[in-house]
Structures are given as C-alpha cells and as structure tokens.
Write a structure and sequence with these properties.
The structure holds 2 protein chains of 2 kinds.
Chain A (H helix, E strand, L loop, with lengths): L4 E3 L2 E5 L4 E6 L4 E9 L6 E6 L5 E4 L2 E5 L5 E6 L8 E9 L7 E3 L3 E6 L1
Parallel strand pairs in A: 2-11
Antiparallel strand pairs in A: 1-3, 3-8, 4-5, 4-9, 6-7, 7-8, 9-10, 9-11
Chain B lengths: L3 E4 L2 E4 L4 E8 L5 E7 L6 E7 L2 E5 L6 E7 L2 E7 L7 E8 L12 E2 L3 E5 L1
Parallel strand pairs in B: 2-11
Antiparallel strand pairs in B: 1-3, 3-8, 4-5, 4-9, 5-6, 7-8, 9-10, 9-11
Classes of the chains: A mainly beta, B mainly beta.
C-alpha cells in the first residue's frame, strides 16, 4: 500500500516566520501535487511537480520534488495569516493505469497576526 | 470559483432517509471522483468515473450508490447510512490521466458536510 507521510501534522507560527512542510514516501511517484484547503471548502490545487529535483515558486511558496521522486517539500517565506489552512500533498502512482492520487493526511497551518 | 459545484452544502439525515448529493463540473473534464474526508484520515477515494464509466469502486458499502449520467454531472445516492458515515464528501474532476500526459490535476468542489443522526 502506498502511503504519503506529511510532517508536521500541526504548525502554529507568528506572522513573518518561515516554515517548511514535508511529504515523504517509500514509493516513486510520476508527479506530485500540493493543495491548500480552507475550513468548509474543498482543496485548491497550488502546484504540480513532475521532474525529479524540480523547484517551483508561487510568490512566497517554494515547492521542491525530490531527486528520486519519493518526497517533496513546501517552504513558505514570511508567512501571513492568509496562508492559514490545511496543506495536502498528493502523489500520482507511477505507471498506475487509473491515475488515482494518493493523499497525505495534511499539515494544518495556523499563522497568527 | 473552482468550476466544480456541489449541492447541498450541508445535509442532516436520519439513518432511514434516502438523499442524493449532486456535483456538476463546468471545466470540460472527462473524469469525476467522489472522496470522503473524515477527521484525522487522508482523503478516501470512493468512486472514479472516466468517460462516464465507473472505473473504481474502493470497497465502498452498498449504501452509497454513484451515478454519472454524463461527463458534467455526478451523483451520490445515500440510503440507510450509519452515524460513522458523517463526513465531508468531496467531488472532483480532471482530464483523464492518459489524455493529460500522465498528470492528474484534480479540481475539487466545496463539499457537502453530511451528518447522520
């Protein structure tokens, strides 16, 4: 069974601090996505990474896909209260015929003013 | 706006009721999904429809019955649910991975918060 482990599960920080969230697996993924979910809403896609070692930036958010395509990280610089939410990583099964995503449990981030 | 809508947003039902959840996507996608999201658990994939055919049924109890009349609409029919079925039910859509170069970017609706009494 493929699993994606996210850490930390919970993170509470002050506005302006930096943070990194991790997503790890023993399985190889053909691509990996990060979503953010706010209370009472569905997850919203932030980014997709495909190539091992790939780095993508979205304003203050930096996403990296591990060289072996088994792990990923999300780094937020100078966090703001608007960054508060549940961050989910999801991997696409390498070679899977149905292309179903495997989701991690998420990291719940709270950024206090 | 995500292009995927779900109704109702909130539903309270008794264990003997029959109700249906509705999902509609306006993104031109040809794959649709039902997920269950419970506290402290990863998103659980329930059903997948690709090109209007059900391609995945992840050991979901028969009290949940999906229906996909066309590529834009997806229903989840509920019957004699249990209190442990209370959760957020999310619908998502995507291009089919084989048509999208092996990438499966899913777009989610806002979900239906279901409470079973």
């Amino acid at each position: 069974t493929q699993l994606l482990e996210q850490s930390p599960q919970f993170l509470s920080i002050q506005e302006g601090e930096n943070l990194t969230v991790y997503c790890n697996s023993s399985s190889v993924f053909s691509s990996l996505q990060w979503y953010r979910q706010e209370p009472g809403e569905g997850p919203v896609l932030l980014v997709t990474v495909v190539t091992g070692g790939e780095v993508k930036k979205l304003k203050r958010l930096t996403f990296q896909f591990g060289d072996a395509r088994k792990d990923s990280s999300l780094h937020i610089t100078a966090a703001q209260p608007g960054d508060t939410g549940l961050y989910l990583c999801a991997g696409l099964n390498y070679g899977g015929s149905q292309g179903n995503l495997i989701f991690g449990k998420g990291t719940k981030l709270s950024v206090k003013p | 706006e995500t292009g995927v809508t779900q109704t109702p947003r909130h539903l309270v039902m008794g264990m003997t009721n029959k109700k249906s959840l509705k999902c509609e996507q306006h993104l031109g996608h040809n794959a649709m999904y039902w997920y269950k999201q419970s506290a402290k658990k990863p998103l659980e994939l329930m059903f997948v429809y690709s090109l209007e055919e059900r391609v995945e049924n992840n050991s979901v109890p028969s009290r949940f019955s999906p229906e996909c009349p066309n590529s834009s609409h997806l229903f989840l029919h509920l019957h004699t649910l249990q209190p442990e079925d209370s959760a957020l039910y999310l619908c998502a859509s995507s291009r089919t991975p084989t048509l999208a170069g092996g990438i499966n970017e899913q777009f989610f609706g806002p979900g239906t918060r279901l409470t079973v009494l």
